[in-house]
Give the backbone structure.
Amino acid sequence: MRKSLKQPVPEKRSPTVESRVALKRHPLHPILVVYPIVCLSLLLPSDLVYQWTSDGFWARLSWWLNLIGLASGLFAAVFGMLDMFLIRVARRHVSVWNHFVAGVMLLALAALGVWLRAADPAAIWPWAVVQSSLCLLMVIVVGWLGGTLTFGHGIGVYDHASKDYGVDDAPGE
């Protein structure tokens, strides 16, 4: 049991924590999350354009955005959970658990949207619009928490200057 609320720091402190699920040192979870981010972020604009124009194309687009957002989100979540459970120091960060719980909530909202739109993608008022609004809000929250892990805690990034390059050969110089 921990005796303080301070974030744990490994004995040999490194500025970064390498991803355990990567392809040629490129972490897969950050690569894959762009698809659900795009799809679930475009749900609300698509629903609003449908409300404004009554063109069934936008309702069908919302259905597909929601379905692809859910499927790709579940796929990306698998790699995120693998990283979470395979990186010991990551599991100790509160930010990792916040990101995990918020991500589960986002996927539950996406599943709700698929269920709401399944019978008739055009019958969206008002619940699917509320769902797509909450999805957009949760995408922002989950993305913020994921960015905190990457940029604040160095989870899933690499210290290129000390591993691959000499001090004078660091990228960007």
The beta strands are 22-23, 26-27. Confidence is low (pLDDT under 50) at residues 161-173. Residues 36 and 72 are 6 Å apart (CA to CA).
